[in-house]
UniProtKB/TrEMBL annotation:
<dbReference type="InterPro" id="IPR050570">
    <property type="entry name" value="Cell_wall_metabolism_enzyme"/>
</dbReference>
<feature type="domain" description="M23ase beta-sheet core">
    <location>
        <begin position="94"/>
        <end position="189"/>
    </location>
</feature>
<dbReference type="GO" id="GO:0016787">
    <property type="term" value="F:hydrolase activity"/>
</dbReference>
<dbReference type="InterPro" id="IPR011055">
    <property type="entry name" value="Dup_hybrid_motif"/>
</dbReference>
<protein>
    <submittedName>
        <fullName>M23 family metallopeptidase</fullName>
        <ecNumber>3.4.24.-</ecNumber>
    </submittedName>
</protein>
<keyword id="KW-0378">Hydrolase</keyword>
<dbReference type="Pfam" id="PF01551">
    <property type="entry name" value="Peptidase_M23"/>
</dbReference>
<dbReference type="InterPro" id="IPR016047">
    <property type="entry name" value="M23ase_b-sheet_dom"/>
</dbReference>
Length: 213
């Protein structure tokens, strides 16, 4: 996690003493009052979410909680996108409420943001899975795992190991099913896979693409 610069801390401390009492700026404790960024909570559209995050000079304080980046070690490779499709097993039109990422059995699966494991178990469709609750209404779900390495109630940080890729549940082969929810609604995880809040280069790339114009 990026450290807040001393200069920023000094300015921040001078202009907003009351605010600094509400939040622990020590990145090792990462204590956050969700109220400070409540503007992020109602947002559902990915462009609105990204615009909010990138335009906030204080984003350093909370970006570790936003599910961002790729949950596997490899380069991004998508087997199946979010949205309507013919289900590969059932052969009927079904809305795919997540994104399928290429992966072989046993490959490591990581949390994409800090949060709490609220579910770790088995369902007939997504097999062994882990569900993480983040701040601001975000939830991330990792399905078809061959192994689960975390327990319900456990706090996890970004890039913490959650389990291994597998082929449990209703699948034709091993891959990672990755779902994002915001305020109890499914959202397309695609844009979030490419996010790297700690790299200015990525931010620039988004502006180039016109996403933040
Ligand atoms: Zn899937």
């Amino acid at each position: 996690m990026k450290k807040i610069t001393l200069g920023f801390l000094m300015i921040f401390g001078c202009i907003n003493l009351g605010f600094s009492q509400n939040i622990a700026l020590n990145t090792s404790t990462k204590t956050i009052k969700e109220d400070n960024w409540k503007g992020l909570s109602p947002l559902l559209e990915v462009n609105d979410i990204l615009r909010y995050i990138y335009s906030d000079p204080l984003k350093e304080n909370y970006i570790h909680t936003i599910p961002a980046g790729y949950p596997l070690d490899k380069d991004i490779h998508i087997n199946s996108f979010y949205g309507s499709r013919n289900h590969p097993v059932h052969q009927v039109a079904k809305f795919h409420r997540g994104i399928d990422l290429k992966g072989g059995t046993g490959e490591k699966v990581y949390a994409t943001g800090e949060g709490e494991v609220v579910e770790a178990g088995y369902k007939s469709d997504i097999g062994n899975y882990v569900k993480i609750k983040h701040l601001y209404g975000f939830e991330s779900i990792y399905g078809h795992l061959s192994k689960i390495s975390v327990k319900k109630g456990q706090k996890v940080s970004r890039r913490q190991l959650l389990g291994k890729v597998g082929a449990t549940g209703t699948v034709t082969g091993p891959h990672l099913h990755y779902t994002l929810k915001k305020n109890n609604q499914f959202i397309d995880p695609f844009d979030f896979l490419f996010l790297d809040f700690e790299s200015e280069g990525i931010s620039f790339m988004w502006q180039q693409k016109g996403k933040l114009a």
